Amino acid sequence: xxxxxxxxxxxxxxxxxxxxxxxxxxxxxxxxxxxxxxxxxxxxxxxxxxxxxxxxxxxxxxxxxxxxxxxxxxxxxxxxxxxxxxxxxxxxxxxxxxxxxxxxxxxxxxxxxxxxxxxxxxxxxxxxxxxxxxxxxxxxxxxxxxxxxxxxxxxxxxxxxxxxxxxxxxxxxxxxxxxxxxxxxxxxxxxxxxxxxxxxxxxxxxxxxxxxxxxxxxxxxxxxxxxxxxxxxxxxxxxxxxxxxxxxxxxxxxxxxxxxxxxxxxxxxxxxx
Length: 273
What we know:
It is built from 13 helices and no strands. By secondary structure, it is mainly alpha-helical. It is globular. The two termini are 27 Å apart.
């Protein structure tokens, strides 16, 4: 157990600069959301803008103008958790850390140094996944904390139950966990960090594109359930403080199955010399 804890700490320390930088970027992105909204003053001033935004833009944000208007401040703030920039930051943080800890170490050969200790492959993999869980938790907390700070600074018009940030954090955690599961399978199978990152990004982008275009193109609607992004609903979490249980289970399953598959691949593969 002590060896696993030591390996977790080692992996987190090695990636600390990159992790902290990405988390700061994520927090700052969410911090500016309430500040930007507050600059409009009365929320009613935003209503005319909602009518001129094309449907493709709302599909990109996975929300409807009617919901935004009905939810008030929570509806506008929720856009910060469905915006493409937010997704890029979440995916980048998680994929980078997962790929660095598995494929990256195999590429550099440093994984043999870890295995030179009295540590089995199982414990090494478990340590990497504990580190991933820590990073996923930090990602889930960074956004809500940043937005809460923005609300404290700007005090925009409207009301919001800030306890709902807990549900938002859970929704983001589940999304990041699903991304981590997919990245783990890929990072365990290849021996190049750049290849692992590239393939993982390709899979994540494909899932996002399917979710996006399924609302615009009827031919893709039958494939929408195959996109894990279709089960991510932070808008309802922030507006009413609720998460769909079945959606949460699916995201959790995607991540967990990915971790299990990654372990199976890692345990049976030959490590590069």
